[in-house]
Every structure is written in structure tokens, then in C-alpha cells.
What we know:
The complex is a heterodimer. Chain A has helices spanning 4-27, 31-64, 70-94, 97-130, 134-147. Chain A is mainly α. Chain A has a single domain (4-147), classed as nmb1532 protein domain like (Four Helix Bundle (Hemerythrin (Met), subunit A), Up-down Bundle). The longest helix of chain A has 34 residues, at 31-64. Helices cover 80% and strands 0% of the residues of chain B.
Amino acid sequence: METISEYLSSDHHCCDDYFATAEVHAAKRDWAAAAASFEQFRSTMTHHFEMEEHILFPAFEQETGMTQGPTQVMRMEHEQMRELFARMAAAVTAQDADEYAGLSETLLILLQQHNLKEENVLYPMSEQAFGSKGEAVLRQMKEMSTVA
Amino acid sequence: MNAPDSGLSLEQAPPISVPFRFFLSAPLFLLLAALLLLVSGPQVLLSRWTPALLALTHLITLGFLSMIMIGALMQQLPVVAGAPMRRQLLVAWMVHIPLLAGTLMLVSGLLYSQTALLRLAIFPLGLAFSSFLVAAAGSLSASQVHHATTRAMRFAGTSLALAAGLGITLAGTLGGYFNLPLNELVGLHVGWGLLGWVGLLVMGVAYQVVPMFQLTPAYPARLTRWLGGSVFLLLCGWSLAPQLPLPLATWGTSLTAAGLAIGFALFAGTTLYLHKKRRRKLVDVTLRFWRTGMLSLLAAIALWTTAHLTSAIADDPRYPIALGILFMFGFAISVVIGMLYKIVPFLVWLHLQSRLPRDKPAPNMKQIIPDHGSRRHWWMHMATLLLLLGSMAWPQLVYPAGLSLGLASCMLWLNLLAATRLYRQLAR
């Protein structure tokens, strides 16, 4: 059976692919393609963040009683990334390849560090905390995907 | 299971001044190495034992490589191991200044054959390494995180302790404190320093950063689980083998050395293969430096293997020097510089964006260190590597090699300085 870790990690992987595609298009100044793949990247990421912020994190906080701990740091990093998405979108609109490349480079490290922390620490901690309730949390997240 | 142990706490990252003092000092030692090369000329390459070459080697290994590796570890260890380092600022002071002073003393002692300086250098260098190792051990022992990277870091740290201990013993022997067999000690010192401390740390770091920076697949779990420990055990075996009775001693040494060569070749080959499989198609400057590093490592292994089969090469005094150029300059320095070009702009961005008001976004990484600056440096770095290797055949090339090394180190220093000044300007 698929675990929370597997499900969310493979979603990270999928976001990475969109990220790489958008970056190449922007570097080639193929703005129509860049806009399309960036939008795909951004919407996949946003959806991923929402699954975590609306379902995983609250469940984790309820189960462990830790509201100021790891989930708080993850939320803050989501905010930092959302700000970068906004600036990247502006760079695509302005067709500014240098600005996009710089933001993309910055986002890559922030995002990968964030993913590592989630995959190595937060997801395993959540699974441990949820125990048998994990299945329900996973189902809720998947339902959110089909609605969206 | 509380937050500070989980690797997700905010307070773990040290102030930016902790790593940056190391990063900004290191290129100056490379510049000193370049000047030394220019002043000594072709004579420096006559044998690995010339005072100038011994001094040059330590400018690179202590002044450049260890300086940056320690600075980066003080930054990354709390993040990777998920355990804060206690009294980071105090530790930074207790490591940085003594390492700086000790390296200068040791290098001048070696260059001018001043035994008093060698004896004196023991104290600051001993203080620097022991302060760092105690702090790192404290952080690692509190860590709940156990993966291939923290494991490799433990092995690398132990290797550093051995290499530094052997180095201090050597300085003491040259300084007249002890009477010990120099050749054997040098062999052990070089093995633990280069293969253990440098090699194992690069491996551990690569497991995390290669997939992260280039979006490659992860290193195969079978490799990461065994490689670090095997290299460490092989180094132990290789160090102890000479104590065995005679035919066994020779076989033991050859077998363990061959094992080490295979281990590092596997690492370099896998890294190049992963680079080929990367999903991020752009070729950035870090990728260029890392490819240069891995190809140089493979070339070093090929040269070592050839020397073991051909006594004409093994007996040539240029052989250990060429091996050193490939391993230290081609492999270690390239990889370390490749890392710096990611860590430095990212840290500046990270610290700035938490300090600046919301309506004033932090400059992006490529505004902090522009591509053209780092790319120009890579070209100069490549020229230096080729000229250094060329000087093995045409000793006069040592002059352009020194010049190009000097230019490359200035480029690195200016790139890092520009990033630091931008930070200072905006963070005010």
C-alpha cells in the first residue's frame, strides 16, 4: 500500500520535472512554452502546498500537539517559495530571461532543501504519529486532488 | 521527538559571519600558492620533497581546502545532522584565527626549513582542529539523523583527527621533538588527509548535493550504504598492513590500495553517470566544476594504476607531483569551488530575505554572484589545471601556470567579496 511519504515524495518529483522544463524554455527565451510550463509547475506546487497546509500539517499538529515546531517552519518556507513564484511569473510576463534564471536558481535550492527536510524528517515523523490513522489522511489528500 | 532535534528548527543555522570568514580567507592562500610558484620557478617541481613544494601543498590543503571545508561544515552540519553546534561564534573564532596563523607558520617553517616555526605551528593548528572536531562531534552525537551523509561525515571527521595528529607528529619529528620514521609517517598523513578527510567528505556531501543541484536520480542506496565505511576500513587496513610479516605486508598494502582506487573510481563514475541522467538540462558553473573534479579523480586513479604496473613511471620524481596536481587541484579544489558558487549566493539570499522588509525583495542568486563572473573563473581554473599538468613535461610552463593560478584565485576572491559587500550594503 502507498504511504504518505511515497505519495508526497512522488509529487515532489513531478514538480521537479515541470520546474526543469520551465527553466529550459525560459533560458531559450521561448516565452509561450515557458509561460505554459511555469503555470503547470506553479499550479502543481500550489496544490501540493495546500494538501500539506490544509490536511497533513493540521493532522500532524493535532496528533503531536506541536504547533510551533516543524510545521511552522515548513509553512514559512512555503511562503518564501510563493513569493518567488510571484516574482518568476512577473519575469515570464516581462520576458526577462536573466531575472527568471536567477530566481529559478534560488528557488531550486530552497525547494530541494525543503523537500529533503520533509522527506527525511517530517513525513516519516507524521507516519509514526498517525499510526493507523495515516490511511485516512492520505485518502483526504487524494480526494483533494480529484476535486482540484 | 522535539523540534530542535528534527532538523526543522530555525535556530540551527549559524550567523552568516561564521562560514564567510573561512570562505573569504581561503582564496588568499591560493594566491600565496601562486606567488610561491612564480617565485620558485621550475625548481619547485624537481621533487615532491622540495621545501617550496611542501609549503605549496600545505597552502592548498590547510589554507584553502580545510579552511573552506570547515567553514562549510560549521554552516551545514547543524542543518544536515539536525543538531545545533554549541557556541558557534566562539568555535568559529577558535578555529579560524589559529588555522590561519598555524598554516602561515607551518608553511614558512617548511619553506625556510625553520624547525622552530614548525614546532610553534603545532599549537595553533592543534587548537584549530581540536576545537572544530570537539564541536562537530558534539553536534553529531546529539543528532537523531542517521543517513549516508552523516555517516560519511563521521568517517571524514575521524580521518581529519588522524591526519592532523599525524601532521603534528611529523612537525614534531622535523622539529626535533621525536625521532620517528619520516617516510612512513608522511605516507599515512597523506592517505588520511587526502583520501579520508577530503575524499570521504566530498562523497558524503555529494550524496546530498548532486541530486539536489542538478535534479539527478539519487545515488544507488547499495553504494551509499557501503562505500564510505568500506573506504574508511580500507584506509585502516592499508595503514596497518605494513605491520604484518613480510610477504603479507606487501600483499596487504597492494590489496587495500587497489580497493581504495576501486572505491573512488566507483564514486567518480557514478557521479558522472548521474550527471548524465540529470533532469535539469541547463549546464551551470557548479556542474562544470564538478565534472572537472570527477574526471580529474578518474585521471588520478588511472595514473596511479599505471604507475603500479610500470616502474618507469613509479620511479619518476614527477609522478607523485602529477598525482597531487590531479587529486588536489583537479579534483578537490574544483569540487570545493563548485560548492562555493551555490552555497555563498544562497546563504546571502537566505539571510537577506529574512532581514529585508516585505516590499523590498532580496536580490536573486545570480544577482549576488553573476554567471559571467563564475564562468570566467572556471575557464581560468581549467587553464591553470592544464598548465600545471603541462609543466610536468615543459617545466617552463610553471610561470604561466602560476600566473593563471594567481588570476583564478583573485577571480574567486573578488566574486566572494562582491557577494559579501552586497550583503553588508543591504543588511544595514
